[in-house]
Amino acid sequence: MDPRPTYTITTAETHQAPAYLQHRPTQPMPLHEIPPGVELVTLPSGIRTLAYTQPTPPPMTAAPAPQPVPAWAKTTALLVPTTGFGIGAAGVGLSYAAPGLIAMTDALWAAVALIAAGGGAAMALLKRCRRPAPAQITQHITATGFFGRANGTIHHH
User: Fold this and answer.
1) What contacts 143, CB < 8 A, 6 or more positions away?
2) Cα–Cα distance, 76 to 73 (Å, whole number)
3) Which is deepest, 18, 29, 58, 68, by most CB within 10 Å?
């Protein structure tokens, strides 16, 4: 007897099958030629035939054990709201301090302009006060003859 299980297929008996579907004796198929997923089944009329069957579901496996949450994830999850609230508080503080900051920047620009103007005035005053006396230059030129070569010296005093 065949060691493989047989499956019983039941159908409603409404009419007789056409002649081309009725059982005709054939040679049994060798076992090594049966494709995967095909089983030997017994029909309600008692005829044994090959048919595709539903695969048996795999056995239920236990659910994987839950993994603990890593420490870095916990730390990040705790720091994110803290950082967000800190940035929000800084924004609110800057919005309250904005008029004072604008006034301070105006005062600083005025101070920079004063320093620049004062430095320019001081440079002009120093340049005017330290003006040297005009230089005196003495030249001695000598020449011999009408077409002779001239020699000379220049003295800066």
Assistant:
1) 149, 150, 151
2) 5
3) 29
